[in-house]
Design a protein that fits this description.
The protein is of the alpha/beta class. Helix content is 23%, strand content 28%. The longest helix has 15 residues.
Amino acid sequence: MAVLPSAPLRPLRIALFAPYDLARAGGVTTHIRAQARALRQLGHTVRIFGPASAPLDGGETALSRSVTVSFGGTESGLGLDPRSRSRVTTLFASEPFDIVHVHEPLVPLLPWFALRHAPSRIVATFHVHREHGHRWYPVARPWLQSLVNRVDVPVTVGAPISVPQICFLRSPCLVIALWSCGVTLTNAPSPESSNGIDGYVYG
């Protein structure tokens, strides 16, 4: 078990992709904005992208309209506009990013497009834990597996014993566990052997 270094190797350009409506309050969007503030304090350049149902503040860009979908009694605003694919590809063609960090990468559709077309290293954070996977995984496995195979550094939020969704779709499953007291890398290569993946040390 190795603790991630706290200091960055160099300032990075980082794109954070939100799965849910950035114009509505929510735990994941709060997490993303806190992450952006912390990374900017370390000297990185950070931009936030996602679906939105209303105008956003500076540093945040809507790439899709928000469509409200209900899951188990909980309403979420998702980026289900297929036209966001062209917006994502245009973004990546016009702006160079060192790291693309996608939150809830298995949530359709905007996170899927970010995973598919990101030309740089990809970090993915899984906020939801399913100890036995999702009932749709067997059906969608070929498509989802092709997406998660593009992830360089998968992250799970919570206790390290929790099972992130990526483990049902890719093996071996390298996981970084995050919790309030710090960041710990479990069963992972050292930064020296990570092929220069700055995601291990970017903050």
